[in-house]
Amino acid sequence: MPAYDFKKIEKKWQQYWEKHKTYGASNDAIKPKFYGLVEFPYPSGEGLHVGHPRSYTALDVICRKKRMEGFNVLLPMGWDAFGLPAEQYAVKTGTHPAVITKKNIATFKRQLQALGMGFDWSREVDTTDSEYYRWTQWIFLQLFKQGLAYKATAAINWCLSCKIGLANEEVVNGACERCGGPVEKRDKEQWMLRITQYADRLIDDLHYLDYIEPVKVQQRNWIGRSEGARIKFPLPDITEPEFGGDHFQNFLEVFTTRPDTIFGATYMVIAPEHPLITKLASSIKNKVAVKNYVEKARGKSDLERTDLAKEKTGVELKGIRARNPLTDEDIPIWVADYVLPHYGTGAIMAVPAHDSRDYAFAKKYKLPMKIVTCPHYPSPTCPVLKDAYEGDGHNIESDFLNGLPTSEAKQKIIAWLEEQGVGSREVQYKLRDWVFSRQRYWGEPIPMVHCEKCKDKSKYGDGWMPLPEDALPLKLPEIKKYEVADTGESPLSKIPAWVKTTCPECGGAAKRETDTMPNWAGSSWYFLRYAAPHDTKFFSHTEWQKEEIQPDDLDKRLFALLKCIKTLFSAHDIPFWIAGSLMMNGLNRKLWRHMHDIDMFVRGSDWERILEFLRADGFIIHEEHNGWNRVEKDGCQVEICPATPLEGELYTHLRHGQEQVLHRYDLELAERGWLWGVPFRTISPTYMLRFYRFLRDKFPKTRDKEADRQKMEFLEAYLANPLNYWMPVTWYNGGMEHTTLHVLYSRFWNKFLFDIGAAPTSEPYEKRTSHGMILAKGGEKMSKSKGNVVNPDDIVAAHGADVFRAYEMFMGPFDQAAEWNPRGLIGVSRFLQKVWGIGLSLRGATPRGDEAIPRGKGDVRNLTRLLHQTIRKVTEDIESMHFNTAISALMQCSNEMQKAEGVTAEQFKIFLQLLSPFAPHMAEELWSTIGEKGSITHAAWPVFDPELAREEKIELVIQVNGKVRDKIMMPADISVEDARRTALASEKVQKWLAGKEPADVIVVQGRLVNVVIT
RNA sequence: GGGCAGGUGGUGGAAUGGUAUACACGUCAGUCUUAGGAACUGAUGCCGCAAGGCGUGUGGGUUCGACUCCCACCCUGCCCACCA
Question: CA A43 to CA A720: how far, in whole Å?
Answer without folding.
Answer: 33
